[in-house]
Each structure stands twice: as structure tokens, then as C-alpha cells.
């Protein structure tokens, strides 16, 4: 049972050392999904001294982490940041929480463990947005290189699992596969037959760059050990004895700059300031680079506290501007989640895993209206860009947003990528479909609330701000509901119970759907883009080498650099991105 039974003491540096008597080549702010990959790769060279500073603790024996069937059990516990989200006016002013992992391994310790990469054109679009060399083909060897895929058993194949061998790696650190608790019996056959009768094809393996269809997907887990495979278990525990790799518990607050640094030329970091687990403010120096891997909700806050961001915003907080970079904390793209449910004539064993997913494109969602919708939405891009720019204070200009929206429009209507995900969750006496629009046009932000509140950011996703997002979510909802009206699923379900016919009758209008969605949608916890890898003119924060514009030795490696949403779940792409970033840092890519 790899990584679970070791007794490990992480290094808490004495005050004297923390104040500068010990230095490192690289300091990584954040020991989460991406940061631990980078730490693993850099420390493989014994001559390179690497330090990881992570606010969370080592949770390798926490059952809320290790369980492969305990998704949601960690929410609102000590390993969940459970951030408050700004009341969303577009969702009737409702309060909500954004869940994010607070542990070594980051959100990989509390997520749903889904291992899905997405559609190839979505990664190719990164290159179009000003990032030469960032495309699907370039990322592919990193997707497969980090993976150690577990070939399904005969029983798992009988329970609906299929795969394409060339889509998976078997030599990487990250163990993936399907759990032994995978639901067997006939339900997966009824589920698959329903989608097939609806008109959606079976996708033998969604990890090859074309995700459309229905399938049973792999997860980040060690099947034989029956434990979750989080980033710490995969990339830290096996190498934690390296003498040149240290991990300490603390919260990085800001990057420290060398004296004389100004916004005229690229400024150089000399280290970081952080809060220790006991609340002391300490500093450490970095001989080569500071790498921010604190995630899409925290890396922008570190930049702002360091004087990198929009000058007017920084001035309000009393922070001296070191680099004028308005895109910091902007371009937040999150996916609003919705659900419908039916009572059902269904009996299932307790704890059965049901990774049943379907992905649909615009043609699936809108049918004969797709061509006219493509034309009308293209004509609306400028208006949406102006609206969203204004809603975010004009920090990222409408012209820049319109250029990004044009790329996104082409993905949806030109490249035919998937734009809706529907997960089916059967349970004792009930079946639900949970889904979300994959490529929303709405853009929000995350910023510092105050210089003393890095753990309490202002998170404002601005869900459903763009009216096309409402249209996508409505189309997705209608597909999700039509699934239950299709045989053989229609023979299993009994009654529409959530939200029910009173709110959504069978012939519900667009207005009824919109009202229901605005009253119930919530976070999907897939936020990205807040330190986007795009050209500076488009509101980007990092360049193609992931260096923060205006700095010589500060990089960001986490979800915040991904400039557009992807149809897969974030985890697989984050591991690949971090692996490639490590090669860039070491000069091997």
C-alpha cells in the first residue's frame, strides 16, 4: 500500500534558518496538484535544492482523503478551504461556497478523482492565444508520461469499462484505473442503451483528444490498494527522502524583490515571505526562481501582495505597484453546475462507484438550430465582450475579450468540441443527472480582500453573466431530462422529483428553465484563467515559459495559467502541464 504507512516528519525550519541562513534554488509556493509534480522533477537532480511551502498538512492517513468512495465527505472539514463566494446577483443573490483542498496534494485530495483530458482543439487554442509550442501534440507525451494506467479486470470490462491502450501511459507515477467497487449488474447496460437510443455514440476511451459520447471513465486511484491517488501519494511520498527536497507547512504571502526593483525592466525575486504554522512571519531566499503553484484562487493573491497587478486596485490596498499587470486575478472562468433527479425503481449495493459520463457538442444540444445559432452568437461577441468587460470594471478591455471569444466561438461551432457534460448518478430508489456547460463565456475574478486576508479572497465567478451561457445550460438541461424519457431508462424512473414538474413541466419554456437554473446553479470547482498564459495585450499574466510578465524569475504553474476552459476535468491536464513546465524550467523542453 504505497505511501500510506510511512512515518514522516516534514522539515520545519528554525527561526534562524528561516531568516536567511539557508537558501534554496527553487521555492515552490503550494504543494498541490501542480506544485508537487514540479518539486518531484526539479529535485531529481541532487544538485538542485528545492523547497515546497504548503499551508495544508500531510493527510496521507486521513480517511476523507484515502477513500475511493468518499467524495464530498471532505467538504467543510479541516482539509477544505471552503471559501465564501460573493453573492451572485445573476443567481438571485445566493450565497455559496467554493471547495478547495487544504492539504499536501491540494485539491487532488478532495476532488472526484475523474481522469479525463478533454478535446484536442481546446489545447491547440492555447497556441492561438499567443503561446507558441503549447498544443495538444506537445502536451501528449506529458499526458501519457505521468500516467501509470491499470488495465481493467474482466469483471470491470463486464461492468462497462473500455479503453484504448495507446491512449495511456504505464510508466508514470500517477496510478489511474477503475475501482473494484465499480457498479456491476445491468444498470450500465440500461444507461448506455439509453444514450445510444437517444443518438449519442459510445466512446471507447475519452482520453484520446475526442471526448464526445458516453463512457465509463478512469479515476486517479490505486485499484489494488483501494486508495485515492492524490498528488502527494504519486509525486511526493516516493521521493520524500531526497536530501535536496524539503517541505514545510506555511502560507506564502508575497514574493520579495531585490533592491532597486521597479516596473521599468524585468524585476528579480530574491525569495518569499510566508506565515509559519505557528503564525510567525518568516522569509527565505531563492537562488534561482520562485514558482507559484497555489492554485487559481491563491496564486493571484500572492502576486497582488507582491505588487504585481492592476495599479488602481493595489493602491486601494496600500500596495506599491512593482509590475503593472491588470490581468492578475481576472479572466476567471468557472462552470455553473446544475442537477435534476427522478425517483426510480432501482436497488444498488452501498458504496458502488458509478463513473458514468456523457459529453455532447453544439449539434447534440441545439440540433437544427445550430447553424443559425452559430451566426447569431458570432454577431453577439462584441456585445458580450463589452458587457463582461464593464461588469469587471474594464480591467480587461472589450477588444481583448472579443478576440478571445472569437477563438472560443470557433471551438464551439467550427471545431465542434464538446460543450456539455452530463454525469448520471444512480442510488437506492433514485437517479440523478448532474451537468454543466463546459465552455462558458462569462468571466469573473478573484482578488485580495485586504493585505491581511490572503485566506479570505474576494471570489466572484459571475456565473451566467453572458446570456449564451444560459442558453447552453438550458440546452444541456433539456438533453439531461430527455435522457430519462428515452427507453430503457424511462422504464426505470418513476417521478420527476427535483426540481419537479411544478417548476419545470415537460414543455417548460426557456424562461422557466432560466428561472430554475438561476435558482439552483452552483460552483463546479473548476476555476481557471486567473493568471492566464496569453499575450499581455489580451490580459495575459504569464508568457509561454510561464514567467510572469515584467519579472525575470517568477513563474506560475497551476490552473490559473490555463487560458480557456477544457472539456475534460482539470486534474489530468494539470499533471501534464506541470510536467511540461518542469521541462521548461530545467531546459529540457
What does this structure look like?
It is a single chain. The longest helix is centred in the middle third of the chain and has 22 residues, at 370-391. The chain has 589 residues and is an alpha/beta fold. It is globular and about 70 Å long. The model is unreliable at 1-21 (pLDDT under 50). The strands form 7 sheets. Strands 7, 15, 16, 17, 18, 21 and 22 form a 7-stranded antiparallel sheet that branches. It has a 5-stranded mixed beta barrel with strand order 1-2-10-11-12. Helix 5 (136-145) crosses helix 16 (570-586) and helix 14 (467-484) crosses helix 15 (510-520). A hairpin with a 2-residue loop joins strand 17 and strand 18. The chain has helices at residues 15-21, 35-43, 63-66, 120-128, 136-145, 154-158, 187-198, 231-236, 299-305, 311-316, 362-366, 370-391, 398-414, 467-484, 510-520, 570-586, and strands at residues 23-29, 50-54, 83-88, 94-98, 147-149, 174-176, 213-216, 221-222, 227-228, 245-257, 269-276, 281-292, 308-309, 323-324, 336-344, 356-361, 418-427, 430-437, 445-447, 458-460, 493-498, 522-523, 554-556. InterPro entries: FAD/NAD-bd_sf (IPR036188), Glucose_Oxidase_domain_2 (IPR027424), GMC_OxRdtase (IPR012132), GMC_OxRdtase_N (IPR000172), GMC_OxRtase_C (IPR007867). It holds the Pfam family GMC_oxred_C. Belongs to the GMC oxidoreductase family.
